[in-house]
């Protein structure tokens, strides 16, 4: 009886299989994929920075290749045949010959809008528009603004005294500004519009008999971008 029991204990075990011990692996913080709002925002920010850097490099390369120079503007000649003040009304007749030089070899300029304004003693008294045009490489274009008419100006007593003094001396200090809307053209590429200004401080002799007065000095204008 003891031998039978012993042989049964030494036999093979035919019970249900024992499942293996499962191990739990906790993923690290850097091992998973990022798909939250913060990750999307970070990727978008990196894309924007990359685009800005690439555009900056392109602009720098274009500038180094083209070396753009400023336009040069002069008032070549001017004729002031009428400039009379009566009861705060100014009667005027002024014509200008302006040269605009584009010194660039590879940059053309579209002048889409030109508005010329004349001032005396910080008072605007005249306004006119000029035709739009395209200016090619290393080209000089001429502008011919004409101011003629009458305008009410508020000079005050001191301004009237200055006017009479200028009249007795035979010349007037007149400021002319030309507001522009321009585009640059480099090969087939056209830029967005810019709004620079030509600013000209002029000392204009007055013709007493209605003819063109002598003594005007060719004057360089400033360019304000």
TrEMBL record:
Short name of any one Pfam family annotated for the protein: LEA_2
**What are the entry keywords?**
Membrane, Transmembrane, Transmembrane helix
Membrane topology category: Single-pass membrane protein
**Record's InterPro entries?**
LEA_2 (IPR004864), NDR1-like (IPR044839)
Q: Tell where it localizes.
A: Membrane
Query: What positions does the domain Late embryogenesis abundant protein LEA-2 subgroup occupy?
Result: 98-193
One biological process term in Gene Ontology? defense response to other organism
User: Where are the membrane-spanning stretches?
Assistant: 47-66
The protein in question is named NDR1/HIN1-Like protein 3-like protein
Protein's organism? Cinnamomum micranthum f. kanehirae
